[in-house]
Amino acid sequence: MDLTVIALFVLGLVLLVAGAESLVRGASRLASRLGISPLVIGLTVVAFGTSAPELAVSVQAGLAGQSDIAVGNVVGSNIVNVLFILGLAALIVPLVVSQQLVRIDVPLLIGASVLFLLMSLDGRIGLFDGLLLFAGIVGYILFALRQSRKESAQIEAEYAQEFGGGGKPTGALPLQIALIVAGLAMLVLGSHWLVGGAVAFARHFGVSELIIGLTIVAIGTSLPELATSVVAALRGERDIAVGNVVGSGIFNLLAIAGIAALVTPDGLTVAPALIRFDIPIMIVAAFACLPIFAKGHLIPRWQGALFIAYYTAYVAYLVLDATRHAMLPAFSSAMLGFVLPLTAMTLIVVLVHQRATPR
Fold first, then answer.
1. Domain boundaries, the chain
2. pLDDT under 50 in the chain at which residues?
């Protein structure tokens, strides 16, 4: 493979991460200057900013006619967010969620995941689907802003520590605008190079663009969410660590897929393999967040380790399937016949026990 292609792919990934960081910093400081509370900034500006790489890549891929990369990026990013990023955050520190909006977001994430599957059954996310998804993200943002007024002082303090500027404008206005413009420029250029490199990788290794979108591209575009949740977990900001993952999943399904479908001629094509396997996995991962719905529930380290193990198994399955490896039948039988049912029963027991425990 041409080293130039590899270099541009890596540089595109770097530009996506740097562009998202620049966009978040500039937009957050501008919002703070306008008097917007840190809680609202965290729920909207930062949530959208960390999903900016997914948006840039999915729109670029859709316009280039690579729907497999566009849709695979959305689905793969959601799987990465829950199974790997949330799992890693829980490994760092057991997660206790007290933010009301996070517990409300989990059913919304499940509902959005199921809606995405229903829209995909005809093999396409069309214009009307895109409009419906985009209307959903507008409604979600308005709902989040309204719910933010009901949060406790503890939650507001947590967001103020992470996203607040001490009540004072930070940095000159031209600098804030320059950060936003630079971030957008890096996202556009980085997405162009990343998508081009992803297509080249798929052709070189003889695998589908869908596999590349579900793995390399999805992991790469999820790096801002990974950094945000890991740093928040290390600082003990558990609501931000969880809220970033769940909120990003909702943004991916409603905003990213919706906008990509609206700007792509004839909409986004959804591969049959996605409908049969990957989207159901995404829905199962969303359901795995249900324990968060129980007030005051602890997400212990063992559940974090379980999530990471499942993501490893999911990627292993994709690799075995793409290479038509001889171990694929045995691996599939073990996962479907023993591991998945056992884990499902464990999560159900944990959830029922938590709901039944007096508070």
1. 3-356
2. 166-167
Backbone angles phi and psi of 51, in degrees to 5: -95, 0
Asked if 152 contacts 98 with a C-beta cutoff of 8 angstroms, the reply is: yes
Return the residue matching tokens 């590349």: 212
Both tokens of 185, joined, read 């420029």
For residue 257, the model assigns a pLDDT of 94
* 127 within 8 A of 262, measured Cβ to Cβ: yes
Q: Is the distance from CB of 288 to CB of 94 less than 8 angstroms?
A: no
* Nearest-angstrom CA–CA distance, 216 and 172: 37
Main-chain phi, psi angles of 269, to 5 degrees: -80, 135
Q: CA-CA distance, 320 to 325, in Å (whole number)?
A: 5
Q: Where are the beta strands (DSSP E) in the chain?
A: 95-96, 124-125, 268-269, 298-299
N- to C-terminal Cα distance for the chain? 60
Name the residue type at position 321: D
- Please identify, in words, the CATH class of the domain defined by 3-356: mainly alpha
Rounded to 10°, the helix 238-251/223-234 angle is: 160
The rounded Cα 257 to chain-centroid distance in angstroms is: 12
Rg, the chain, Cα only: 20
